[in-house]
Amino acid sequence: MNLNDIKEEIIRLKKEKDICILAHAYQRHDIWEVADYVGDSFGLSVQASKASNKNVIMCGVRFMAETVKILSPEKTVYLANPIAGCPMAEQMDVDMLQEVKKQYPDYTVVAYVNTTSELKTLCDVCVTSSSAVKIIKNIDNNKILFIPDCNLGDYISKQVPDKEIKLVHGGCPTHVRITEKDIEKAKALHPGAKILVHPECLPRVTALADFAGSTTEIMDFAENSNDTEFIIGTENSIVEHMQIKCPDKKFYALSKDCVCHNMYATTLMDVYNCVKGTGGEEIILEEEVRLGAKRSIDEMLRLG
Ligand code: 13P
Ligand code: SF4
């Protein structure tokens, strides 16, 4: 079978088996082409709560598939490639968070959605990069404990200066590879280009950018802008996707190192094997964990 045959077979099988395919924006372009919905973390979680299909395949990382299962327990949910996890989601465990909560008992615990289901059971509300500022503004408490991405947390603190936001404890190992030196080099090579970065980047990098936003916000900015050259400071797949989407504009990677190997792990063959029923992993969550985590995701959908 050639690539086109595989794509056609995936599309035929997903209809026959009532499967909805969700793809995070960092997936390869051939996966975008067979997906029913492509988006950032927030878009995918909203889509997950609306999809009417009996079965869902998540092409992304494990916490995203878990989010789908948390919101849709009646659906059979698969992660297309079981090894695709998010290292940031594993950076903090339940014991660690319990300890921190004891130190800050009157703080509202806000978790980036890139966390395990177990960790979400201890949080008050989840946020994504595109919904974080709005949700935190809407929380009826000025004291916020934000986990686990200190870089996104720093970006949010600057947008919501009237709240006291404590940051604990990690960051995205992919986005932190971008340095100020990369900005200097990119500006020298492409002086007219706009620099667009994800707030998971280091604060000193975000400070030098022309625009900071979630993956979808970066893509929308570039598509709708009158500018024609962009330096992309997020996972490098976005450079390729945008070049296909906007062939008359030019896109450059801010750093060749901004590649998420976990996002890249899923291939079209994984999706094919998953729709065929010979690959992927069904996501099973204990009901107590699912309900505990659901509370914080429901709160995210309500406040966002
Ligand atoms: P968004 O999809 O919310 O932009 O998050 C980026 C990311 O790193 C997802 O894992
Ligand atoms: Fe996790 Fe960063 Fe990869 Fe997103 S890009 S899945 S936050 S490691």
List the helices and strands and how they pair.
Elements: H1 3-16, E1 19-24, H2 29-34, E2 37-39, H3 41-50, E3 55-59, H4 62-71, E4 76-79, H5 94-103, E5 108-112, H6 117-120, E6 125-127, H7 132-138, E7 143-147, H8 150-159, E8 164-167, H9 180-189, E9 194-197, H10 203-206, E10 211-212, H11 215-224, E11 229-233, H12 237-245, E12 250-253, H13 261-264, H14 268-276, E13 281-282, H15 287-303
Parallel strand pairs: 1-2, 1-3, 3-4, 5-6, 5-7, 7-8, 9-10, 9-11, 11-12
Antiparallel strand pairs: 4-13
Bound molecules: 1,3-dihydroxyacetonephosphate and iron/sulfur cluster.
Iron/sulfur cluster binds at residues 61, 86-88, 114, 172-175, 235, 260, 262-263.
Q: Tell me, briefly, the overall form.
A: globular
Low-confidence blocks of residues = none
**Can you say what the CATH homologous superfamily of the largest domain is?**
NadA-like
Helicity range: 40-55%
Describe, in plain words, how this protein is organized in 3D.
The protein is an alpha/beta fold and 304 residues long. It folds into three domains: 3-84 and 263-285, 3-Layer(aba) Sandwich (Rossmann fold); 94-172, NadA-like (Rossmann fold); 175-253, NadA-like (Rossmann fold). Helices cover 44% and strands 17% of the residues. The chain is built from 15 helices and 13 strands. The chain has helices spanning 3-16, 29-34, 41-50, 62-71, 94-103, 117-120, 132-138, 150-159, 180-189, 203-206, 215-224, 237-245, 261-264, 268-276, 287-303, and strands spanning 19-24, 37-39, 55-59, 76-79, 108-112, 125-127, 143-147, 164-167, 194-197, 211-212, 229-233, 250-253, 281-282. The strands form three sheets. Strands 2-1-3-4-13 form a five-stranded mixed β-sheet, with helices on both faces. The model has no long low-confidence stretch (mean pLDDT 96). Iron/sulfur cluster is lined by residues 61, 86-88, 114, 172-175, 235, 260, 262-263.
